[in-house]
Amino acid sequence: MVYHAIADLLKLCEETKKPLWEVVLQADMESRQVSREDSYHTMESMYTAMRQADQNYDKSLRSSSGMSGGDGEKMRAFNESGKNLCSDFTALAMEKALKMAESNACMRRIVAAPTAGSCGVIPAVFLSYEDMFASNRDEIVHALFIAAGIGAVIAENASIAGAFGGCQAEIGSASAMAAAGLVYLQGGDEHQMMQAAALALKNMLGLACDPVGGLVEVPCIKRNVAGTVNAISSAQLAMAGIESAISPDDVIDSMYRIGNIMPHALKETSEGGLATSESARKLCKNLGN
Ligand code: SF4
């Protein structure tokens, strides 16, 4: 099972009559020369690590820069206030995205899926889904395989690194991966999963990587929330039968081309965008940078 594009994945599903997660699992077995059990166990252990990272969130922790920490707890408290503007599921996912990204900034153990900077999106969506809908653990692991398949195609044809393609490559990729997995959990078909990924990635195209002080904190932590909500709304659109006018592979190709023409200053160098704003200068002065 070899795939290089979203179209390949869909073709393999059709030819083998296997579900998408199974196609991705079998490709992993072949490429890493591991047994089915090993492949499955690796993915399951990733999910366990995500769960542990969420449970180990410490509301009192602050990053060494002093810029991050405590917002996950603020979100939790607000979610309990009964003043939610969005669904309980989306609210919980926002809370978990903040907690995970803050944990990363505070040097706690996280799963870099696909990167440390975008580590909040996938766990936020899948952990919240398991919590809210008492989903079967195997189903969540299947959703992670689907996310991994999307991520592998993006990594091969564009990038998942902010230094190469800007934040579209990090938060955008994470959002597309989570959106496809969420459609699976909701009972959507393979086509809808890919549509969700395309819709999510489209919304993030052109996003600059402009971290203040070169630290993965501002704007990264709150962008994980944006990527999470974007994944949920994209999955909802796809489940409703709404389609991307641009094919999933063309969206990924567009991300690659945008990354190529994106200025160096917006690729994790902190030489442009938010990183060079007056507010950022003040923050950096306090950091001693
Ligand atoms: S702004 Fe840059 S460092 Fe921060 S999450 Fe986005 S890609 Fe990663």
Keywords, separated by commas or semicolons:
289 residues, mainly alpha, 2-methylcitrate dehydratase PrpD, 13 helices, globular, binds iron/sulfur cluster
Describe the structure in your own words.
The protein has 289 residues and is an all-alpha fold. It has one domain: 2-methylcitrate dehydratase PrpD. The chain is built from 13 helices and no strands. The protein has helices spanning 6-16, 20-32, 36-55, 71-79, 88-105, 121-133, 137-157, 162-165, 167-185, 190-204, 220-239, 248-261, 278-287. It is globular and about 60 Å long. Iron/sulfur cluster is lined by residues 117-118, 162, 167, 170-171, 209-211, 216, 219-220, 223, 268.
Compact description:
This protein has helices at residues 6-16, 20-32, 36-55, 71-79, 88-105, 121-133, 137-157, 162-165, 167-185, 190-204, 220-239, 248-261, 278-287.
Any idea what the radius of gyration is? Answer: 18 Å
Our estimate of the beta-strand percent is under 5%
The end-to-end distance, rounded to whole angstroms, is 49 Å
Number of helices: 13
Total strand segments: 0
Instruction: Compute the number of structural domains.
Output: 1
What sequence of helices (H) and strands (E) makes up the elements? Answer: HHHHHHHHHHHHH
The amount of helix comes to 55-70%
